[in-house]
Design goal:
186 residues; Membrane protein
Length: 186
């Protein structure tokens, strides 16, 4: 079973690296545009603007932001490779890492021509990761746990239950043994 866990972590690491390279290429490449809109630093202003453009455009814009980092919701826990972990702790770690990655992308975009900083992208990217984690990870972990049984301790004998196991003491010499006894003092 140790090999299976290693394979899952290795595959998760390779897929995570490939996904991050793709995200970096999509979000950090310079764009040749005639004009650039102002950065959006007001939460939900960009989402409201997308909704005002119509349902099809809003679905494309908002859906794109939700799905950009969404695979991290599964890939980050896969790289960790732990099956027996607190679900809330795992969600918190995954969402925190995703939010920091999204923030890093937004900060790097300040120096890329044609790319604009948008706080709503940060919110939607993080929400997409959280939703993916909530939908996929608990089910996958439960399925993998069914295949891996935890080792159970051997049942205790009757004597051990009542008094506990017999203590053992290793024999360690304190001082060298001598055949000559010290002279007694009068």
């Amino acid at each position: 079973m140790q090999r299976k866990g290693f394979r899952i972590r290795a595959a998760g690491g390779v897929l995570l690296l490939a996904h991050l390279l793709l995200v970096g290429w999509v979000t950090l490449r310079p764009l040749d545009v005639p004009w650039v809109s102002a950065p959006n630093l007001h939460p939900f202003a960009g989402i409201r603007a997308d909704l005002a453009l119509g349902p099809r455009t809003a679905a494309r814009q908002i859906g794109g932001a939700l799905t950009l980092l969404a695979p991290l919701g599964f890939l980050l826990p896969a790289v960790g490779g732990r099956l027996h972990v607190s679900p809330w702790g795992s969600l918190l770690r995954t969402v925190t890492v995703a939010a920091l990655l999204s923030l890093g992308i937004e900060l790097f975009q300040t120096g890329v021509p044609g790319q604009v900083v948008d706080v709503d992208s940060l919110l939607l990217n993080t929400l997409g990761v959280a939703l993916t984690h909530l939908v996929v990870v608990p089910a996958v972990r439960a399925r993998l746990r069914r295949g891996v049984e935890r080792p159970r301790p051997a049942p205790l004998r009757r004597e051990e239950r009542a008094q506990g196991p017999t203590p053992t003491i290793s024999r360690v010499g304190i001082a060298p043994q001598s055949d000559v006894l010290p002279a007694s003092r009068p």
